[in-house]
Design brief:
Elements: H1 2-10, H2 13-22, E1 24-28, E2 33-35, E3 43-49, E4 52-56, E5 60-65, E6 70-71, H3 73-78, E7 85-88, E8 92-98, H4 99-108, H5 110-135, H6 155-175
Antiparallel strand pairs: 1-8, 2-7, 3-6, 3-8, 4-5, 4-7
């Protein structure tokens, strides 16, 4: 849940609403690959419910992700093929936002683009810090294959958590078909 709070904490309510309306809520069955290693991805996925496995062709499972995680953001930022495969670990529900829709929104609303890229920078920096903390810098370490990653948030980001949590709740209500969302 924490990762979506990092992203939504940097955005405005209208940005979160746009994501809920522009995105597609998709249910995937166990074993479905949302992202394939080495194959360009055209979407960012917000995990709304369930768990995902992150796998490397040579290593196997390298992470398990829970509700609120985001995947596909690195390929959006640098347009490189994914370095891992992301697979549904049981039935999952995701919000899929296509790169083309996001790019169109960034062109129409440059302030949204600035907020989104800032949010992605916070998100990726937080993920990198967590990886370094778990694996050490230049030291070998192992990840229990059943461990779901739940990094601690940077103290600066904690100020935005409550607001971001409310945004995520409103986003979920919009996606469930609620006719009015209180803000």
């Amino acid at each position: 849940m924490r990762k979506v709070l990092v992203i939504l904490g940097q955005l405005k309510d209208t940005d979160a609403e746009w994501m809920a309306r522009a995105g597609e809520r998709v249910k995937h069955e166990d074993g479905t690959a949302l992202i394939r290693q080495g194959v360009r991805s055209d979407s960012i996925y917000f995990l709304l419910d369930g768990k995902l496995r992150v796998e490397d062709e040579k290593i196997g499972v390298i992470a398990r992700l829970g509700t609120g995680e985001i995947v596909g953001e690195m390929s959006f930022v640098d347009d490189s093929p994914p370095s891992a495969t992301v697979v549904a670990d049981g039935t999952v529900t995701v919000l899929r936002l296509s790169h083309s829709e996001i790019e169109r929104r960034c062109q129409e609303d440059p302030a949204f683009g600035m907020r989104l890229y800032k949010a992605l920078c916070f998100f990726l920096a937080d993920r990198l810090r967590g990886t370094v903390r778990r694996l050490g810098y230049g030291e070998a370490a192992t990840l229990d294959s059943d461990e779901v990653l739940e990094d601690e948030l940077d103290e600066k980001l904690l100020d935005q958590v409550s607001l971001a949590g409310a945004r995520f709740d409103r986003m979920l209500k919009l996606l469930s078909g609620a006719t009015s969302v209180q803000g």
